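Weekly structure sync, notes
Attendees: PL (lead), two postdocs, one rotation student
Agenda item 3: pending single-chain targets
PL asked that the sequence for the first pending target be pasted directly into the notes so everyone works from the same version. It is reproduced below exactly as submitted, 147 residues in total.
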Amino acid sequence: MEPQLQWKLFLSLSLLAVFSAGVNAWTGEIRGRVICDVCGDSSIGPEDHILEGAEVAILCITKTGEVVNYQAFTDSKGIYKVAETMPESERWDACLARPISSYHESCSRLGEGVAGVKFTYTHPSGHYHAVRPFAYRPTSDIPSYCM
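Predicted structure, written out during the meeting:
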């Protein structure tokens, strides 16, 4: 058996043993959206569009003090998601989501005041936390129809 396959099998069996030994499993999810704020007016309007492939970093601190770092990319609908299943006693306590980059050539300037969003994760298992949209602005001049 290949070493990588052996490792995956070991991890799977270890998680199964932990969760079947009476430890309550908890699953959390964080979702958000990344858009191009075409007019640069900090509001979502019909002229704005989603950004596919934008990168977002999410940093969470668990109830036990462990720091967990996630990386996500937006899908074709501009949505990113991260999810984790862990013992209830180690669930997320607080998180920080922040935009990292937009690979969209015409919309890659991060909007003002969008350094990140801090939040406490209080949702029960199986529910998600929605982060307000992150906005990038056009790299060129704002279109005349915005003025």
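Discussion points:
- Residues 3-20 form the longest helix (18 residues).
- The chain has one domain: 24-146.
Action: rotation student to compare against the earlier draft before next sync.
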